[in-house]
Amino acid sequence: MLAETICSAASAAGLGIAAVTAYRKRFLTATRIAAYSLVPVGLVLTGVVAWVSGIAFKPSVWLGFGVLGLSWLLFMTTRAVERRSGTTRAERKAARAAERNEAVAPGASAPSLGAGSQARPAAAAPKPKKKQEAAAPGDDFSDIEAILKKHGI
């Protein structure tokens, strides 16, 4: 009852301000103020205000919000533990996809014949060591020389 009275008073005050603004020949602004001032009355007439006030003052609703907060906290805790374990969601998803698509190895021209294949998912491939990454300068130029010789340069 109090919420409806407050909304009605706010709408009446808004319509009064809109009337004064229209008197000052600012019709666009007055129309906008009138539109905003009619929103609280519309909310009262549709029952939204009664619904919100009914929710705000029920202990069972606040208990429900507490349960939702607890479930969110548990979900975020499991995500944090999952991140610390070293595997990401994308890696696990790729591993599951590789298990399902085991019949054909990626980039293979023929299907593999079961679990004896030596194809491994990209996520489980070993990372190159630092020594292998920093190849000798002669190795880099040998590839370039081979390409140039192939083209007759």
Secondary structure elements and pairings:
Layout: H1 2-23, H2 27-46, H3 48-56, H4 59-84, H5 89-100, H6 130-133, H7 137-150
Helix pairs in contact: 1-2
Can you characterise this structure?
This protein has helices spanning 2-23, 27-46, 48-56, 59-84, 89-100, 130-133, 137-150. It is mainly alpha-helical. α1 (2-23) packs antiparallel against α2. The N and C termini lie far apart (92 Å).
Features:
single chain; 153 residues; mainly alpha; 0% strand
Let me know the number of strands.
0
Instruction: Find the structural class using helix and strand composition.
Output: mainly alpha
Cα radius of gyration in angstroms: 35 Å
- Report the order of strands and helices: HHHHHHH
Summed over residues and divided by their number, the pLDDT gives a mean of 79
Strand content: under 5%
What's the story with the biggest beta sheet?
A: none
Terminal CA distance: 92 Å
Per the principal axes of the C-alpha atoms, what is the gross shape? Answer: elongated
Summarize the structure.
The protein is built from 7 helices and no strands. The protein is an all-alpha fold and 153 residues long.
